[in-house]
Structures are given as structure tokens and as C-alpha cells.
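thought: user wants a sequence for this fold. calling inverse folding tool.
action: design(structure=
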């Protein structure tokens, strides 16, 4: 009995994390919506805190969330005006691009490599064709995403307005002697997640802008497609930028072989600057996650939740890391 009493809070925290992971495993849509709501809340928390000093917090939350929505839709409109036509043209040319890849010098010499390229591009082409033909399915999917988006906005509003109350409510579920511990743990997790999402957004915009500028200046095709792909890839650390860089270099080799080496050098320099200068400057050492752990976490997340799992892998690792550190720290104090 004394052993249970001494470690009760740690056991409950561990069980809660396991239950959360299981819930995310069996309810993947819930996982994505819930976590995106938390990340969006953390992104908008500072302006809400400042405005709430001058007006009711509910009104401040509504104004900040409304301002974000206007900016977000404006950016989507600006990007889509160029991105959607370019993406459509890129999709139409996928079969031709696949043929051009096979004709690159050296690729046809290795049967195994050629087979792998053929299979990858055949799958990509099949997916694109199916997406174009299944217009009703696409419309239904977009409707579902719209509903998810509305749910995320509502959840974000209530988290912005009552976040502190929710945190205290959670803390009060634990024994009185551990309430400060729970509040401290939640604060540490939320701070780390806020640092993560802000840093990723900054790197995302910087990367997209630089890639778009390079492709435009070099007169390479599909500038907006590769800019968006490179920007979004930053949300999947390590693996994402590597795949996006390889894809950009390969497309350059097809359309403008003379710029292949230059494009490879461009991606190499940009990636190194992002992850050795920009990322550390923004994030610092607050996450303390080794690249190997990040890669394995992303692979596992992709296996469990597909693309959503790859996106959520690092935030989840941050949460689990802080929970384990908290349990380990307090187990020595018992």
C-alpha cells in the first residue's frame, strides 16, 4: 500500500499517456483534430493573453482566432492562384516525367534500380489518375476536411478562452500534494510544443520562399509545387526535407540537366543552414531529441497513422519525453 501511495501520481500519469496513445490509435481522426487544435491554440496564445488584459478573454480569443482565419484564408487564396494550376499541369505530365526518368543516363543500367523507379512512379501515377477520376469522392473528402476544420476552430476557441481552467481542472484530479507537479508538467509540455510549432512554421515559410525564388530565377518548371512540397516537408523533420530535396534535384535533371549539380548544391546549402543555424536559433535545445530518435519516431508514426502520424510524431515524442523525465525525477524523491 505505501508503494502505491508513493507512486500513485506517476502511475496515473503513465496510464493516462498510454490511454491517450491507444485512443489516438483507434480514433485517428480524433487524434489529428485534437492535436491540431492544441498546436493552433499554442500558436495564438500570446496575442490572446495580451488582448485579454484590455477586454474579456472570450472576446480576445474570438478576435485573435478571427484574425488568424482571415490571414490563413488570404494566404491560401494567394498560394492557390498559382499553385493549383501548376499542380494540375504537373499531375497531367506525371506519365511523361516517369518516361523521362527512365531515359536518364545511368538509371537504365541497373535493372533493380529501374524496377524500383518504375514501381514508384507507376504507383504515383495511379494515385493521381484515381484522384482525378473520383470527383465525387474528392468532394466528399473535402467536405469531411471542412467539418474537421470547423471543429478545430471551435476547439481552439474554447482552449484559448478556458485553457487555464482546464489545466487546473486536470491538476485537481490528482492528490493535493501533487497538484503543483501536474501544473508544472503541463506547463513544460505546452512550452515545448509551442516552441516546436512556431519554429516549424518559421522554417516552413523560409524554405518555401527560398525554393520558389530559386526555381523562378533559374526558370525551372513547377516552382510553386516544389516550394509548397519543400515547405510542408519541414513538418516531417530529417526525412521530409531529404525526400523533397531529392525530388527537386531529380526534376531538375529531367528538364534542365545542366543545372542538376547546381540544384543539388542549392538544396544541400539550404538544408544545412536551416537545420544547423535557423532551427537551433529558433528552437535552441528545448526539445532535446536526437535525430535518430526523430527518424525512428517518424517511421513509427507513419506506420501507425500514415501521413498524420508522421506529422504528429515529434510533438508526441516531446510529450512522452517530458512525462518520462517527470516520472523519473519524482521516483527518486519518493
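)
observation: tool returned 334 residues.
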Amino acid at each position: 500500500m505505501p508503494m502505491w501511495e508513493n507512486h500513485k501520481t506517476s502511475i496515473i500519469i503513465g496510464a493516462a499517456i498510454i490511454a491517450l496513445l491507444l485512443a489516438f490509435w483507434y480514433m485517428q481522426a480524433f487524434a489529428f483534430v485534437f492535436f491540431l487544435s492544441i498546436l493552433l491554440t499554442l500558436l495564438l496564445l500570446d496575442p490572446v493573453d495580451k488582448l485579454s488584459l484590455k477586454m474579456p478573454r472570450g472576446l480576445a480569443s474570438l478576435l485573435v482566432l478571427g484574425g488568424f482565419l482571415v490571414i490563413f484564408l488570404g494566404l491560401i487564396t494567394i498560394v492557390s492562384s498559382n499553385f493549383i494550376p501548376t499542380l494540375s499541369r504537373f499531375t497531367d505530365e506525371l506519365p511523361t516525367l516517369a518516361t523521362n526518368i527512365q531515359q536518364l543516363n545511368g538509371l537504365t543500367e541497373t535493372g533493380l534500380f529501374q524496377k524500383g523507379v518504375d514501381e514508384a512512379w507507376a504507383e504515383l501515377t495511379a494515385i493521381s489518375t484515381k484522384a482525378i477520376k473520383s470527383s465525387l469522392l474528392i468532394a466528399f473528402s473535402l467536405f469531411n476536411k471542412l467539418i474537421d476544420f470547423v471543429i478545430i476552430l471551435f476547439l481552439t476557441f474554447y482552449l484559448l478562452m478556458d485553457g487555464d481552467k482546464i489545466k487546473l481542472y486536470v491538476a485537481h484530479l490528482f492528490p493535493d500534494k501533487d497538484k503543483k507537479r501536474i501544473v508544472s508538467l503541463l506547463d513544460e509540455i505546452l512550452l515545448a510544443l509551442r516552441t516546436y510549432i512556431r519554429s516549424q512554421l518559421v522554417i516552413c515559410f523560409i524554405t518555401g520562399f527560398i525554393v520558389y525564388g530559386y526555381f523562378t530565377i533559374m526558370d525551372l518548371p513547377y516552382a510553386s509545387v516544389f516550394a509548397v512540397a519543400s515547405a510542408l516537408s519541414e513538418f516531417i523533420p530529417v526525412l521530409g526535407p531529404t525526400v523533397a530535396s531529392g525530388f527537386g534535384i531529380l526534376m531538375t535533371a529531367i528538364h534542365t540537366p545542366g543545372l542538376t549539380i547546381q540544384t543539388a548544391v542549392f538544396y544541400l546549402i539550404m538544408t544545412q543552414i536551416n537545420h544547423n543555424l535557423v532551427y537551433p536559433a529558433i528552437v535552441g535545445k528545448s526539445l532535446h531529441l536526437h535525430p535518430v530518435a526523430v527518424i525512428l519516431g517518424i517511421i513509427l508514426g507513419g506506420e501507425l497513422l500514415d501521413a498524420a502520424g508522421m506529422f504528429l510524431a515529434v510533438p508526441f515524442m516531446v510529450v512522452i519525453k517530458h512525462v518520462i523525465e517527470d516520472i523519473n525525477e519524482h521516483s527518486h524523491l519518493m
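thought: summarizing for user.
answer: Here is the designed sequence. Confidence is low (pLDDT under 50) at residues 127-140.
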